[in-house]
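Much of what follows relies on a compact textual record of a protein's fold. Think of the row as the fold of the chain written in a discrete alphabet. An example makes this concrete, so a full record is given next.


***
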Amino acid sequence: MNIVKAKLEDFNTVKNIINTTIRTIYPHYYPVGVVEFFLSHHCDDNIRKGIETDMVLLIDVNGIIVGTGSTQENEISRVFVLPQLQGLGYGTLIMNKLESIIAKGYSEIVLDFSLPAYDLYINRGYSPIKYNKIITPNKDVLCFNIMKKAIISCIDGKINYNNRFFSSVSNTDNGEVSSATIFQYHQNKDMVWAEYNGGDILKGYLIGTSDDKSNLNFTYQHVNQKGEIRTGKCLSTPKILPNGKIRLLEQWQWTNGDNSAGSSIIEESNIII
């Protein structure tokens, strides 16, 4: 299996994949007028122009082209896999390649989602950022969102945590952070800090440093719903998930109260501001 760049002589192949997918899959999600709109949008001229000016990729499986996808600057478009071959991971493979191309020059990826691909994009860490609506010539309505995904950018090979949001996935019983607690991280060189609140926590702050493996060494303090001031220290180890988001595996200890220790997990969330 190979992923190759499309040439003009591949026009009919690209067109066939797009048209076949739209005519077969889209009627299950959209009214007739919207299906016709998609076919018109992906007309011969637009497909040909895309091959000439954009990065259009093809998935070649034993000499058979089974899917296509395009990127222009930091935008992904025209990701289609032949209907009879969907669910076999080809869409994921072409998205991986398109994202890796964009990641070389940009800090985020944008795309317009179609309903058949919505779950794929959500599972890959994309978040809706803008709602749009198009009235088709026969008055059917196409509603869709523009979606965005931040690329895990690095500084000198390290994760850049700046302006990332996290929420709690799990915590031991002696902790006070819960799924209602939201963290906003900031970074300047090796210094990392965050504000957090929600659930049992009225307001909290943490500050620390990032080492050469992007591990985070923090101290933290917050005021809880009881009006108590709690303080502690925490070591967070990052893991990049398949969807591109960051998971932090944390070992922490209170430095007041009972001085007990615990462990927790927080993951990057889809919050957009």
